[in-house]
Design goal:
With about 230 residues, this protein is of the alpha/beta class. The chain is about 35% helix and about 25% strand. The radius of gyration is 17 Å and the shape is globular. The chain starts with a strand and ends with a helix.
Length: about 230
């Protein structure tokens, strides 16, 4: 589905990614883990075309797409739930969802507003509320719903549950499990290891702009030294 190879990305003269490489297979849930400032968001932005990498490759379904504009990446089937949610504050919940509705890949089982409301009933109750009046949890649900309305084949979530109350986090994880069970490929960044162990097939740990460890949930659970070295506070 997605293969990232040897990405190197700079902010001016400062290098942020040093040969970042990983892959997401069709129907998989894959995580990028690591402490803050290690390059996870830069990786997502480099994939999505928000930042242009200096070198490396990004292939989607076997097609090289590195350096493509962000709108083209969305059209090719990458749906982004960005860090900080970034919903449209002066649009209602319904308008936020309508604004991104598309089906560039001619999916047969399309996402509709009604489907999003079924997954997140809270959004239906707030359908006419402006985005800036929503709680943090409601905004995150809306950000996920907005990405789903693009009918992606790969959903990318940057800090999926950061700053959310435990009850809301549980709702987000259950929604992502439903999406996984439907066959949607997911790339997720988050810090809640116990929840990610239940959700994800494979994990990549990022340190200083490169992958330093990879494995499945069972392997990471057992690797307490790896958790402490790269994920501990």
């Amino acid at each position: 589905m997605l293969k990232v190879g040897n990405l190197e990305t700079f902010y001016g003269t400062s290098q942020a990614l040093f040969g970042m490489s990983f892959e997401v297979n069709a129907g998989e849930v894959v995580t990028l883990l690591g402490r803050n400032g290690m390059g996870k968001t830069t990786t997502v932005n480099s994939i999505m075309g928000i930042i242009k990498p200096a070198s490396g490759s990004v292939t989607l379904d076997g097609n090289e797409v590195v350096g493509s504009k962000s709108f083209k990446m969305a059209n090719l089937g990458l749906g982004l739930v960005p860090e900080g949610r970034q919903i449209f504050p002066n649009l209602s919940v319904r308008e936020n969802l309508i604004a991104t509705a598309s089906n560039h890949l001619n999916m047969s089982d399309v996402w509709t507003i009604e489907r999003v409301y079924e997954m997140f009933p809270e959004l239906k109750e707030r359908a006419t509320s402006m985005g800036n009046l929503l709680s943090g949890g409601e905004q995150q649900m809306l950000a996920i719903g907005r990405a789903l309305m693009t009918n992606p084949k790969l959903l990318v979530l940057d800090e999926a549950t950061e700053g959310l109350a435990p009850l809301i986090r549980d709702k987000i994880w259950k929604a992502l499990a439903q999406l996984r069970d439907s066959g949607l490929s997911i790339l997720v960044i988050d810090k809640n290891l116990n929840d990610l162990f239940q959700l994800a097939d494979r994990h990549y740990i990022v340190e200083k702009g490169q992958v330093v460890w990879s494995g499945n949930s069972k392997e990471l659970k057992m690797a307490k030294d790896i958790q402490q070295r790269y994920l501990g506070i």
